[in-house]
Amino acid sequence: MKETNSSKPALCKYINYWFYGILNETNPNSQYNLLSNFYDKVQSLKDCDAYQRPIKTELYGEVKELYEMYDNFEKFKVASLQQSDQKCDDITKCISTYNKYLKVCQNFYKDGLCMNVKNFKYVYDDHRKIEKKCLEKMDELELLRTDLECIILLPFVVMALITFILLYLYKVNKKFVKNKF
Please, what is the average pLDDT of the chain? Predict the structure, then answer.
């Protein structure tokens, strides 16, 4: 495997996903062992052994839907850039999948899944700026809100609150000490 180091993990994870998809149809219980044997036999993929992880059926379904969403979007994008007679079905499927996983991520944030959902919005918005034919079907996608804003904002609010409390106590205590003596 003579890819750059940055593309190696993505390739290995995709092979893992692809292999699991094939085995899931036949015998999902032996996926991990067969994948190890596959990596051992194919010498050019020996580096991928480090990225091998068993995939739960639920996670596989989510990843499959995300791949299909991105695949449908790429088909739509290519068709729209070629100025061919395109249908807007692919983009409608993408939007419904995005909205489905947006709700999932707002209820329970999963790093890999939700980051890909978030990234899809940015790719979608970039293409939306140049799209002409299916623009009426391309609704503005809702942004995935995370607790990151709260995590960042909370320490600043607490520090400001402590500062004001200490300043107030200093002033009150200073007046109290002057009145006593």
Answer: 81
